[in-house]
Structure formats: C-alpha cells, structure tokens
TrEMBL record:
Keywords: Membrane, Transmembrane, Transmembrane helix
InterPro entries documented for this protein: ADTRP_AIG1 (IPR006838)
Subcellular location: Endomembrane system
Residues that span the membrane, as ranges: 21-40, 60-83, 95-114, 134-153, 165-182, 202-227
Name of the protein in its database record: FAR-17a/AIG1-like protein
GO cellular component, one term: endomembrane system
Annotated membrane topology: Multi-pass membrane protein
Coiled coil: none
Organism superkingdom: Eukaryota
Length: 241
C-alpha cells in the first residue's frame, strides 16, 4: 500500500478503532439495520395511536422517543458518512453519539429497572401492553446498537479532565431541560407522560432528574471504560524534558 493510501486510511480510521468506518461494508450495514429498527419503532407509534398522539408534545414527551430521535440522527449521519466516505459526517456521527449512547443506556437502565419494581411506574393503566418486539425496539435496541457502533466503529471518546467535566455538564443540562419540557407539556395536557412523575412531589421529581443526570454521566464513563477494555487505550507520549 502506498504512503498516500496509508495516510488516507489513518485519517479515516483511528488506530484503536476496531473496524473500518466510514465504509460501505460492515459500518453501512450496522447503520442501515439501526435505521430500519428505529423507523419501525416510529411506525409503531403511528399504527397504535392513543391520547398521546393528540396531546401537546406528541410522543416527544417521552424520554424514550427523544432518545430514539437522537439515535436516528446519529445513525443517519453515520450511514451518509458510509455512503459518501465523508470524514465530516463521520465526525458528526461521533459527536452525536457522545450524547446519544449514554442517553440510551440511561433509558434502558431506568425503564427495565422501574419495570422490574412495578410496571405501573412507566406504563399508564390506560395504555395497552407493548408488543415484545416493540418493547425491545424502544428500550433495548437503540442502546445495544449505539454501543456496538462505539465499540467497533468509532474512535475513542476524549478522556481529559475537561472532557469529563463537559460530559457532566451536558448530562445534567439535558436532564433538567427534559424536566422543563415535561412541565411545559403538563401545563397544556394536565397529565405527565410517566406515572412515576405523577406519584412524586416536585422536590422528588427534581431529585429524580438530578439523579438521572448523574446516571447518564456514569453511563458515559462506563462506555468509555468499556471501549478501553475492548480496544485498548491511547498511550500519551511523555513530554521531552
């Protein structure tokens, strides 16, 4: 392989990145599978309408659907990067994934954890049970696919002290932005999207969103640590004395 081709390959693939991406091979297949899964989840919302379809905020009241939308944007930019071999779109995909992947891991942890405790905390009594395939599509597939994308098809996330502080700030800001959005929807609809919110007083809802921000930060750190365990970590060159 010529020196120019080697340089081009390295510009598109980090040394710790396990598989080539962007590429029209495995990377494109994974992103296409993800987009099909996400599209089927959105289709389920349209095919099974309920009062949320007609309420203020639509299904975007649910953290699950906000996360699904972010996952869709992440994989859409990833697939476009695969088809065009654009490093800019690849960087966009990786930038979106820094928020999308920890958010989806958070959603999976909260949903399945609360469902084990009491399904009524996450599913209102008027809502029919989700089909198993739909349940997995909403609450498992995005976290699983984004984690695969991170571990196999992405460069490592920044691990500096500044990057860690940014992760904490972004996670906390996202959690409280969602709280304000939920309260805005409540003023229009008169009900909360999740029964758990109704059961909690305002101080406890604040505590829940603060805890969610911390848990999302922990998810990001956990994903970063898992990446290092699977792919190794970058060795920083010592400064010359």
């Amino acid at each position: 392989m010529s020196a120019s081709k080697v340089a081009e390959e390295l510009s598109r693939r980090h040394p710790l990145q396990r598989l080539e991406s962007p590429s029209r091979g495995i990377s494109a297949v994974l992103h296409a599978i993800g987009l099909v899964s996400y599209a089927l989840s959105f289709k389920y919302l349209v095919d099974h309408p309920n009062i949320i379809n007609e309420s203020y905020g639509w299904h975007m009241q649910y953290l699950t659907i906000i996360g699904l939308s972010l996952a869709t944007a992440t994989f859409a930019s990833g697939l476009l990067a695969d088809l065009t071999l654009s490093t800019r779109l690849f960087s966009l995909k990786n930038g979106l994934a820094v928020t999308a992947a920890p958010l989806e891991v958070l959603i999976s942890i909260l949903y399945w954890g609360l469902r084990i405790i009491d399904p009524a905390l996450v599913m209102p009594t008027w809502a029919p049970p989700l089909e198993t395939s739909a349940d997995l599509g909403f609450h498992f597939a995005p976290a699983f696919l984004l984690t695969l994308d991170l571990l196999l098809l992405s460069p490592p996330w920044p691990s500096s002290t500044l990057a860690s502080a940014k992760t904490l700030v972004i996670s906390t800001a996202f959690a409280f932005a969602y709280w304000f959005w939920v309260e805005l929807c409540y003023t229009h609809n008169g009900f909360y999207p999740y029964p758990l919110f109704t059961a909690l007083s305002t101080p406890w809802r604040v505590a829940l969103f603060a805890f969610s921000g911390v848990l999302m930060t922990a998810s990001a750190f956990g994903l970063r640590a898992t990446y290092g365990w699977v792919n190794g970590v970058e060795m920083r060159k010592a400064k010359a004395t």
